[in-house]
Amino acid sequence: MTTAEAPRRTWWTRYTSQSPSLLTFFALVLGFLIGAIVIIATTPAVLDAWRHIFHSPTAIFSALKITWDNVSAAYRSLFVGSIGDPRSFVHSFTTGKGWDTTMTPISETLTYATPLVIASVGVGIAFQTGLFNIGANGQAILGGIVGVWAGSMLHMTSVIHLPLTLVAGVLGGIVGGLIPGILKAYAGAHEVIVTLMLNYIIAFFLLYVVLSTALQQPGQSNDISRTIDHSAILQPLFGTSSGLRVSYGIFVAAAVVIFAWWFLNRSTLGFDFRVTGANPFAARASGINPKAVIILVFVISGGLAGLAGEVQMASTNHYIDGGFLIGNAGIGFTAITVALLGRNRPGGIVWGSLLFAALGVGGRTMQAMTGIPLDLATVIQSIVVLFVATPVLVKEIFHLRTQAQGVQLATKGWGQ
Amino acid sequence: MTDVAITSTSTRSDVVPHGRTRAIGVLMIIVGVFSAWAFGLGSVADAHSAFTFTPVNVSSAVPWSLGQLTVLTRPTNLVLALLMIGLGVEVYVRRPSAPLVRFSIVAALFLIALLFWACRTPGPAQVPFVNLTSVLIGSSAIAMVLIYGSLSGVMCERAGVVNIAIEGQFIAGAFFGSMIDSTTHSFLLAALVGALSGAALGWILAFLAIRYLSDQIIVGVVIVTMMSGLSSYLNLQILTPYPNLNVGNIASNIGVPLLDKIPIIGPTLFNESGFFYLMAVLVAAVSFALFKTRWGLRVRAVGEHPQAAESVGINVARTRYRNVVLGGTIAGVGGVAFMATQGQFQVGYTSGLGYVALAALIFGRWKPSGAVVASIIFGLSAYLVNALQSYNVPLSSEIIGMFPYIITIAVVAGLIGRVRPPAADGVPYRRD
């Protein structure tokens, strides 16, 4: 540090010190590395092999081989399950047959990614305004509830019914977003606490609703709702006979991404949002009404989360039950990590969603083929996001040049 | 003198807007009127309710039976409702700066009236009485875990680091606690390992938040996600193939001689597992250390104004590291304590208790004593959600289950008195 030698500004140093996508890539590498360590540390066959490395001179090589086999089998099945088996691609290309089977993994990834993109864009818009909407999951559940109500109780032609249920989902999410928005704007209640608590309140509400006579599947005493009408279903893109589940919902997701990009980068209101997120004091000084911004952010963010829940329900589930989006299956929670991974930008979020959807979907194949539990995907996702949230650490690990930079926080602590 | 009086009044009105205190008074009155209508007049005139006091499973601890308390439901509940209304009127008229205690009393009275009403004898209940001691024992088990969690929060947040990862530390403590207890049959060792796992997660939070100035809330949330994924992974990978690693013993109770013979209080407070007594010691120790020692003053200075603390020679980073790791340790033990009351580790069985503990911490105004009061109320209502199902109460258990969370929102929204977090809570500190 004491040398006066000027840093050599090659294209490499310039690129590595500035490129966020490179940092994300390194975070991914670290995530998969730590995932591999977790596999090694918990697979009995691998541990057994390492326990016996002193038994014979060649044992260490067989231990290394067994380790490599297990880890690579896990990651290979992750790839096969989410993108596809290269061999069946070759088979389909050469014979022109079996495309349905070949494309199933990609279709599944897209199906999973569709609501995830929508919810993540909502969370990302809130992050860009300096607000942490940790309640996307609850808002998505509300969207699903209102959507299932509109989809199963109203009966009309699909041209009206489907858009109507989508709007109903948005409205449900808006209700869930208005509460923290208003409480934050007018009572100063920290949005993280309010949305966290709302997640639990809404989970109870979901149970209450699916057990109540209005929404419960007739003749059922379980926590299962009515099934939505055929006219309110987001139909599979390639017809039901293909078996590919990817639905017209991806057009909804695409529209949301385009809207969000336009909104954040081209609209006046979106500019106000970003200014508020970057510097609330400057925003206030330049005449932006902070209360209105907070409420609007939560309306948009909640509405998108609600739409995500509705899309999930209308394209894959077709009904909701007490376990809808509860626990690790909650797209609202994955959406937080996706938004962080995509640096809260719509484009980044699309890639982030595809990646995390691939991990989630591939995890199932991995569990089926190698017996390694699919929750490894969640672990890898969290570790990747921990590193993405700590860019300086990644730079230190990979000896990248660090620029002095101010503290950039996406959220504000209770104390502020 | 007049000047002083005026100043103090105006300062107080800055902290607690009169309108809000009045609003909470009105809310308490409404709760009272509702109780009078639903629980008082909602039962037939000659209905009676009974409380029994001898716990079913630990009756040996109490050598003599207290019999049962039978009251006429309607007049009793009307009196309870009047008490609630009276407290509400008092809050409305006198506008105390901290109506939290009065609100807690009203909440407790409401729950008692609800219980009386639920078990009234010409009524829908399957069991025509409420065993008050059982209710308290059941609630204290949940409250204990919440207190561990909120104490962990007090340690971290008083030093200026938001620990939203309490839930993750619970999961870690419960998982490793179950494994160690199953292999060694020692809850002491289990608690030690659980403490270590909580401390490790605390260290990760501290490392990223203090050294790399990461966003504490995001890191905390991601740690919880990671732990819920990891515990589910390890459960399938390790515990399922080797079920003898997850036997799920329940910590046995140790009765305090003589004290455990006191009716009601004895079985609830003095015939508990070691984790309960450890919790009581920790509450006392943390409150004493934070508010009566030089160390505590320094910690609070770091949480309020780190720059000022640094300027008088306090090492902010070291203080924060130490507190966050200690906080993680406490939450880790809390996870073991939870496992020691629930048995076998299951995926997702902490069901967000760590977040409820966070809420209890805020409800309790970042004080150990307040956290205890909040945890008791939350524990009581969490327990009643399950218990009330056997009474065929028309009020659905899902609605009752929302209570703790609704109360928390009301608290952070300043509806029940203003809560003020440590000023630098969640703000990364960089020495420039």
Molecular shape of chain B: globular
**What fraction strand of chain A?**
under 5%
Round the Cα radius of gyration of chain B to an integer and report it.
23 Å
Most extensive contact = A-B, 56 and 59 residues
Mean pLDDT of chain B, nearest integer? Answer: 84
Poorly predicted runs of chain A are none
Structural class determined from secondary elements of chain A: mainly alpha
Strand content of chain B: under 5%
Your description of this structure?
The complex is a heterodimer of chains A (416) and B (432). Chain A is mainly α and 416 residues long. Chain A has two domains: 17-82 and 372-403, no CATH class; 105-354, ABC transporter involved in vitamin B12 uptake, BtuC (Orthogonal Bundle), CATH 1.10.3470. Chain A contains 17 helices and no strands. Chain A has helices spanning 11-18, 20-42, 44-51, 59-82, 86-95, 99-128, 136-153, 158-187, 191-211, 249-266, 268-278, 280-285, 290-317, 331-341, 346-370, 375-388, 391-397. Chain A is globular. The two termini of chain A are 35 Å apart. By secondary structure, chain B is mainly α. Chain B has two domains: 13-128, no CATH class; 136-373, no CATH class. Chain B has 17 helices and five strands. Chain B has helices at 2-15, 18-40, 73-94, 100-118, 132-158, 166-184, 187-211, 216-239, 265-269, 274-292, 294-304, 306-311, 316-342, 353-363, 368-387, 397-401, 403-412, and strands at residues 48-52, 68-72, 130-131, 254-255, 271-272. In chain B, helix 6 packs parallel to helix 8 (216-239). Chain B is globular. The chains are: A mainly alpha (416), B mainly alpha (432).
